[in-house]
Design goal:
19% of the residues lie in helices and 34% in strands.
Length: 544
C-alpha cells in the first residue's frame, strides 16, 4: 500500500510539472530533466539503466565540440545516436508551446536544413509526433535523391561502387562513345568495342562520385564536391561545355558547382539542381521527331524540349547550363527528363512540367506544349505533398510523401494500362507504400517500403527486362527478386539493374550491358533470372 500511495503522489507531481512546463526557465527545465533521469535510473533494471547512461559522455562535452561531432554524421548515424538516449533526442511526443527544449540531434538537423535554404518549420504537421523523426526522414529522402549509384542506358551501364569509383560496362559504338574510356590508338575507330565486367574509368580515378545519370546519347556524373562531369554525344550542346562537340572521356562542366542532383534526357538535354534548389538546364532547344511518310518524304514536328526558358528563334541549342528563372520562387528538390519534356518537384511538394507534349506526358489534360514551367493542377488538387518524379519517353510518375504513386501519359508504361492525360493514382500499388521509382523509354519500376520491386511497361519479349513474360501493363512484383531487399534500381529499354541493401547488383535483360561473364549466357540472349554481377558492390543508402 505504501508503494501505491507513493506512486500516486509521484503521478500528481508529474501532472503538476507538465502543466507548469511552458513557464519553466532553462535552468528549471534542466533540473526537471535531471530529476526524471534519476527516477528512471532507480526504476529501470540495472542493464537497462546502464544502457540509458551510455550517451552521457557525449553530453559532458562542450556544446561547440558536440556540434562538430554531430555535423560529421550522416542521417543514418544521427538516427542511431538519437535512439540511444532521450537527452540527445529530447523530443516530446507532443511538443508543448515555446519555449521547447531542443536536443543536440534536432539542433544539428535544423542547422543542416537552414544551410540548404530549407524551412524546418515551427509546428509539426498533422499526424506527426516527433521533430527528430520528421527531420531525419526529410534528410534521408534528400540523401536518396542525391545518391544514384547506377544508371541504365541503351547498351551501356554506369555504376558508383562503395569507394566512390566510377565504373562502366557494355557496348560502345563509334557514334556514341558512352563508356568513358579513352580509345586505344591501335584500335580501329570505326568498330564498336565492348567492356564485359564493370571497369573503373581511368580518367576519373581519385575522384569520389556519388551519383550518375545517362540517356542513350550522353552521360553525367556528380562528385561529392558537387562537380559535374559529362561525356558522350555533344549534339545540341547536351554536354554543357559551350559547344556541340563529343567527349570520349568525362570532362568537368566548368560553369557548374555545388550541385546536388543531375539528370540526362533523350533528345540531347541535361539538367542539374544546386544546393540552393536552383534548376539549370542545357542542350537542344527544339524537339524534332522525324520520319518518312508513305511517299518517302521526310516529315516531323517541332516543339520546345523542356529547358524551361525562351530563347530567340535563331538559337538552336543552349551549350552551357542556364538558370530556369521561372522557378526562382521555388526550391527544386527533384527533376526528371523525358523525351522532350521535363518534370520538377519543389520542396513545397508541387510538381511542374514543361516541354513538348506527347501522349499527355505533361499531365495538363491538353496536347499543347509548354515553354515555361507549369504547375500540374491535377496533382495539386489531391492535397498531397509530392517528393519525387520520374519520366520515360511519353509517360510520367509522381510520388507522394505517403508513398502513393500517380502516373499519366502513354498507356504502355503509366501504370494504368490506358492512356491518361492527367495524373491518376496507380491502382495496382494501392496498399503498398512506394519509397522510390524510376522510368525510361517505355518502362518503369517502383520499390516499396518492404523493398519489393515492381516493374511494368511496353517492351519486346526478347528483352526480358521486366522480369515477366513480355510487356506488363500495370505494376507487378518481380518474382525472381522476391527474396532480395531492393535498395536502388535503374531501368532501361532492354534491361534492369537492382541493388540490394548490401550493394550487390542484380541484372536482368539483354546481356551486353549487364556486366556478366559471357560464360553465363551469350550476348544475343536475355538474362531472364536476376543474376548478381560478380565482384561489384555499389554504394546504397540504407534508411535508419
Amino acid at each position: 500500500m505504501a508503494g501505491a500511495a507513493a506512486l500516486a503522489v509521484l503521478r500528481a507531481a508529474a501532472r503538476e510539472c507538465q502543466l507548469a512546463a511552458p513557464s519553466f526557465t532553462d535552468e528549471q527545465a534542466a533540473q526537471g530533466l535531471a530529476v526524471t533521469d534519476e527516477l528512471r535510473a532507480r526504476f529501470l533494471p540495472p542493464d537497462l539503466a546502464t544502457a540509458a547512461q551510455a550517451s552521457s559522455p557525449l553530453l559532458q562535452l562542450p556544446a561547440e565540440l558536440l556540434s562538430v561531432i554531430l555535423s560529421n554524421l550522416d542521417a543514418c548515424d544521427l538516427a542511431r545516436l538519437a535512439a540511444t538516449g532521450r537527452l540527445l533526442c529530447r523530443d516530446a511526443p507532443t511538443p508543448p508551446p515555446p519555449p521547447r527544449a531542443i536536443g543536440p540531434v534536432e539542433t544539428e538537423l535544423r542547422r543542416r536544413a537552414e544551410a540548404c535554404g530549407l524551412d524546418a518549420g515551427s509546428s509539426l504537421p498533422e499526424g506527426a509526433t516527433s521533430w527528430v523523426e520528421r527531420l531525419l526522414k526529410r534528410e534521408c529522402r534528400d540523401a536518396q535523391r542525391r545518391q544514384t549509384p547506377l544508371a541504365a542506358g541503351h547498351e551501356h551501364s554506369i555504376f558508383v561502387d562503395k569507394g566512390g569509383r566510377l565504373l562502366t560496362c557494355g557496348r560502345d559504338l563509334d557514334s556514341t562513345r558512352l563508356l568513358g574510356h579513352a580509345l586505344d590508338p591501335a584500335a580501329d575507330p570505326t568498330l564498336c568495342r565492348e567492356i564485359g565486367p564493370p571497369t573503373p574509368v581511368p580518367s576519373m580515378q581519385g575522384r569520389h562520385i556519388v551519383s550518375v545519370a545517362t540517356s542513350n546519347e550522353h552521360c553525367l556524373a556528380l562528385s561529392v564536391e558537387g562537380e559535374v562531369y559529362s561525356w558522350g554525344v555533344g549534339d545540341g550542346g547536351a554536354l554543357g561545355h559551350g559547344d556541340d562537340g563529343d567527349r570520349i572521356v568525362p570532362s568537368r562542366i566548368a560553369s557548374l558547382s555545388r550541385i546536388e542532383r543531375i539528370a540526362a534526357g533523350r533528345n540531347c538535354t541535361s539538367a542539374a539542381v544546386d544546393e540552393k534548389g536552383q534548376l539549370f538546364t542545357w542542350g537542344l532547344v527544339s524537339f524534332v521527331d522525324q520520319g518518312e511518310d508513305e511517299n518517302g518524304e521526310i516529315e516531323g514536328f517541332l516543339g520546345p524540349t523542356g529547358l524551361g526558358y525562351e530563347l530567340d528563334s535563331e538559337t538552336f541549342f543552349q551549350p552551357t547550363p542556364k538558370w530556369v528563372e521561372a522557378l526562382s520562387q521555388d526550391r527544386v528538390v527533384g527533376i526528371a527528363l523525358g523525351y522532350g519534356f521535363t518534370l520538377a518537384v519543389t520542396d513545397g511538394g508541387a510538381v511542374f512540367s514543361f516541354g513538348f507534349c506527347l501522349e499527355g506526358g505533361l499531365g495538363h489534360g491538353l496536347s499543347t506544349s509548354e515553354v515555361l514551367p507549369r504547375h500540374i493542377q491535377a496533382l495539386a488538387q489531391t492535397g498531397r505533398r509530392f517528393v519525387a518524379v520520374a519520366a520515360g519517353s511519353c509517360h510520367a510518375l509522381a510520388l507522394t510523401e505517403e508513398g502513393e504513386l500517380y502516373g499519366w501519359g502513354d498507356e504502355g508504361a503509366n501504370g494504368h494500362g490506358r492512356e491518361e492525360r492527367t495524373p491518376q493514382r496507380v491502382a495496382a500499388l494501392i496498399g503498398h507504400r512506394v519509397k522510390l521509382m524510376t522510368a525510361q523509354d517505355s518502362a518503369a519500376c517502383a520499390v516499396t517500403e518492404k523493398r519489393e520491386l515492381f516493374t511494368w511497361g511496353d517492351v519486346s519479349p526478347e528483352h526480358g527486362n521486366l522480369g515477366h513474360d513480355g510487356s506488363q501493363a500495370t505494376p507487378k512484383r518481380v518474382p525472381g527478386l522476391s527474396k532480395v531487399e531492393v535498395a536502388a534500381v535503374a531501368i532501361g529499354g532492354m534491361y534492369t539493374l537492382a541493388a540490394d541493401a548490401d550493394g550487390v547488383v542484380w541484372a536482368l535483360g539483354r546481356h551486353v550491358a549487364l556486366g556478366l561473364d559471357t560464360s553465363i549466357t551469350v550476348a544475343s540472349d536475355p538474362v531472364r533470372t536476376p543474376t548478381p554481377i560478380p565482384m561489384l558492390r555499389v554504394r546504397v543508402l540504407n534508411s535508419p
